[in-house]
Design a protein that fits this description.
312 residues; alpha/beta; Rossmann fold; 13 helices; 8 strands
Length: 312
């Protein structure tokens, strides 16, 4: 782990490629030491706190296109979750209960008692765990683009080719060691395929290279990318307990038209009483990057009561 006190390199605000104009005038990178984990976080502006939790196989950078506008109304906190980017990469602690605890410790460290959360992909897993395990901390929850193991019905092993293309990485990523052996040196093949096949609007080449280079730069980064999947037995057991305690906070479920669509909100309806549905037209999996304007409009409308009034 980088021992400097200031985050540097391509994973930081100062070194990330092709950021929106004016980004570095609003946002800065910093480390927050929460005891057993040092977390890298990108923060900017003030207002009610909004925690952005990225998905697999990405970093905080996935939110770069929506962060500047969100910062007009919120104190934006975009984190590299455990095992990714410039955050610490310990060997264990990748069940969503622990990952949610990381987020609470991070927000404590930043002085934020109550906050809103937006999570994409595995960030949706973490967001659900946050809202379920720490209901006094989360005001509103927006989630996008993944089933939740232990909550969603599990698809059949031999489903359609379309379902297999979307979900085969779940089984592959859970393997011990052989996945790292197969992917090492071929990160561009494996992760490049993920980005290319799950997009309706192709992600910029520089963004894909940034993610792939981040994963290829450090064996611990590749290990961390698989670790959240290897912990699924524990996470599934946790989620089976969580769903016994229904969420009462407002939830927005966002799906891409060419990916999960209404399934995201339908998943959350299995666990929450107040769920709004949004399907983003012309978009597949990578919502904050494929459709940043639509994502911003949805988040702005959903978060307006939180922005305008005291937390309930």
């Amino acid at each position: 782990m980088n021992s400097s006190s200031t985050p540097e390199g391509p994973g930081s605000v100062s070194g990330a490629p092709h950021l929106p104009e004016g980004f570095t005038g609003t946002f800065t990178s910093r480390y927050v030491d929460t005891g057993d984990l040092r977390q890298h976080v990108v923060t900017g502006d003030d207002g009610p706190p909004l925690l952005l939790v990225h998905g697999w196989p990405q970093t905080w950078y996935a939110w770069r296109l929506v962060m500047p506008v969100l910062a007009r109304d919120f104190s934006v906190v975009a984190v590299d979750q455990r095992g990714t980017g410039l955050s610490g990469k310990p060997p264990g602690g990748y069940d969503t209960g622990t990952l949610a605890g990381d987020m609470v410790a991070l927000m404590d460290g930043l002085g934020h008692r109550r906050f809103a959360v937006a999570g994409h992909d595995t960030g949706m897993w973490i967001g659900y765990a946050l809202a379920a395990d720490h209901p006094d901390r989360v005001d509103r929850l927006a989630v996008a683009e993944t089933p939740i193991p232990g909550l969603s019905p599990s698809p059949p092993l031999l489903g359609s080719a379309h379902v297999n293309d979307r979900l085969w990485h779940f089984a592959f990523n859970r393997l011990a060691e052989v996945n790292e052996q197969l992917v090492t040196g071929r990160e561009d093949v494996y992760f490049g395929w993920q980005f290319a096949t799950k997009a309706a609007k192709e992600l910029p080449g520089y963004a894909v290279r940034h993610y792939v280079d981040t994963l290829a730069s450090d064996p611990e980064a590749l290990h961390g990318s698989f670790a959240i999947y290897r912990a699924l037995d524990t996470t599934i057991a946790q989620n089976q307990q969580r769903k016994e305690r229904r969420l009462t906070l407002p939830v927005l479920g966002i799906g891409g038209q060419y990916s999960l669509g209404e399934q995201v909100a339908n998943t959350m309806k299995l666990a929450a009483d107040d769920v709004q549905t949004l399907v983003v037209p012309g978009c597949a999996h990578w919502v904050p990057e494929e459709a940043p304007e639509e994502a911003l409009a949805a988040l702005t409308a959903f978060l307006a009561p939180y922005r305008d009034g005291p937390g309930s």
